Amino acid sequence: MSLLDRVASLARKAKADFEGSPKEVDLDLILARIDEPLRVAIAGRVKAGKSTLLNALVGEELAPTDAGECTKVVTWYRDGLTYRVTLEPTDGPNLETRFDRDGGALNIDLAGNTPGDLNRILVEWPSSALRELTLIDTPGIGSISADISSRTEGFLTPDAEHPTSADAVLYLLRHLHGSDIRFLEAFHDDEASQATPINAIGVLSRADEVGVGRLDAMNSARRIAARYRVDPKLRRLCQTVVPVAGLLAQAGVSLTEAEFRGLASLASEPADLIDPLLVAVDRLTSEDVTVRLLPIERRALLERFGLFGVRLAIDLVRRGTVDSSKALSNEFRAASGLDELRMVLETQFAGRRDILKARSALLALDAVTVGDSSPAAQNLSTEIEKIESLAHEFAEMRLLNLLRTGGVSLRAADLPEAERLLGSEGQSISDRLARQSGDPGMKEVALEALAKWQRRAEDRMAPKDQTDAARVIVRSCEGIVQTLSMQPEPGPGATSL
How far out from the chain centre does Cα 390 lie? Predict the structure, then answer.
């Protein structure tokens, strides 16, 4: 059985063992969670752009993104058969509530409740984007309200009795702040697979603002993200850091024809009139400027696309690169970094779905045993330890963490290959071997890697931690070779898949 199947089997056995007890409800929730899509929380400091990024990932404007602190309650967005919003109070039964849409975003009736009265809001929305990932919008860290910040910390920071409800987290950074590091340290736990960067991705959000809205702003943001990737403190907590211009990403999936006409109108104005106005927001929105678009229309475009987006659109229209809203949407999405983030989500989260879900389920199962000395609880603890110790997937995650935190010091030249073979770049064989899918030489590459790490594992002069690490990598290489050996060889003229 797969790792997730083994964990599910253990949860079903535990449910039978605890039948009739209050813990049976917890076990029902664990079993339901195993069958759900991966849960990904979006977290970050106040006004980091969490809701804007969520809308871009869903491909539809759902979460409100106005100038205030919009998200005061942890809000789940998941795929559903119909459009429905449910309130889950801290006390009392769940309540389906009314909602409408204000400028695209949801306006939810709290039915007389304050944000402090609610554990969460559940938004069910038919969406292909939510079939693979349930997205969780969280209140901003560093809010002027300590109560608002504490909701995110309480939701995502695990303890022995209350493991986090999220399987993974997208953490939005604008600058590398001390509170960002402290939060990410708290999000990781030392249970099951130990602290690991595998279930966290850093997002350099509002990346278009890095260069004060200049056309080369995203290039500057990419250089900053590259520095963050190798920052020792952040590297041990995040798998990678991706720059994303949230407003541009959201515009790439929701640009209207009227908005395109407005941007094209600005682009058609004389360059010597418009270009000086693009230096600052107050200039472009000034009442004293004589252009075809009214100040209120210009302000609306800036609110939707930011100064960078307006500049980029004008440049693209002028150069004849775009001539329709669809073409501009594609350019916005490509420039925003959203496609890169989606690719990272696919390789790092969706590709590890079963491992991350198994890890979360084991943490939840372990919480069931806390303070319980019954034979059923003791047996469950034993079985959890057995899965943790024997699952090679967890061994890979533990070693990746040790390599990133300096707990194991391999040769500098070996480190990138070691991390890649352990799945740092993705779970597929092609990702692990850094080869294109279907490359006929992959098996030879895998055999070379296996031989190399076998030599490292048998090196009697090397420190024990290095040889132990090499043995884990050897097992990963053996699995790759075995999988490749089971694949049929392409016949004459056949195309390898």
Answer: 28
Average pLDDT over residues 204-213: 81
Residue the block writes with tokens 């795929």: 79
Q: Are strands 200-204 and 168-173 parallel, antiparallel or unpaired?
A: parallel
**Does any domain span residue 124?**
yes
CA–CA gap between residue 209 and residue 311 (Å, rounded): 12
Query: Six-digit token pair at 288?
Result: 């004293």
Residue 11 and residue 13: Cα distance in Å, rounded? 5
Alpha-carbon distance of 255 to 218, in angstroms, equals 20
Task: Evaluate whether residue 493 is within a structural domain.
Answer: no
| pLDDT for the residue numbered 161 | 58
**Same structural domain, 376 and 276:** no
Is residue 171 in some structural domain? Answer: yes
In a domain, 159, yes or no: yes
**Amino acid, res. 276:** P
Residues 7 and 144 grouped into a single domain = yes
What CA–CA distances, in Å, run from 330 to 10, 249, 315, 322? 47, 10, 15, 9
- More confident call, 67 vs 391: 391
pLDDT of 260-279, one tens digit each?
999 999 999 999 999 999 88
The verdict on pTM exceeding 0.90 is no
| Residue 342, token pair as written in the block | 């989606």
Instruction: Look up the domain containing 414 and give its range.
Output: 372-486
Same domain? For 330 and 342 the reply is no
Residues 291 and 398 in one domain: no
Give bridge partners of residue 89 from the DSSP assignment: 118
Residue 289 in contact with residue 310, Cβ under 8 Å? no
One domain for residues 289 and 209 = no
Q: Which residue has the tokens 């024809």?
A: 257
pLDDT at 261: 96
Q: Indicate the number of domains in the chain.
A: 3
Both tokens of 98, joined, read 């009314």
Average pLDDT over residues 190-211: 68
| Beta-strand relationship, 84-89 and 95-97 | antiparallel
Q: Any bridge partners for residue 168, and if so which?
A: 40
At 443, the amino acid letter reads K
- Cα 205–Cα 210–Cα 214 angle in degrees, nearest 5: 125
Cβ neighbours, 10 Å, residue 117: 15
Q: Any residues with CB less than 8 A from the CB of 308 and at least 6 apart, and which?
A: 208, 209, 211, 213, 214, 215, 217, 245, 248
Tokens encoding 47: 């006004």
Q: Mark whether 123 and 206 lie in a shared domain.
A: yes
**Distances in Å between the alpha carbon of 106 and those of 62, 64, 142, 185?**
5, 6, 24, 33
Q: Which of 296, 319, 354 is the last residue of a domain?
A: 354
Hey, how many other C-beta atoms are within 10 angstroms of the C-beta on 339? 14
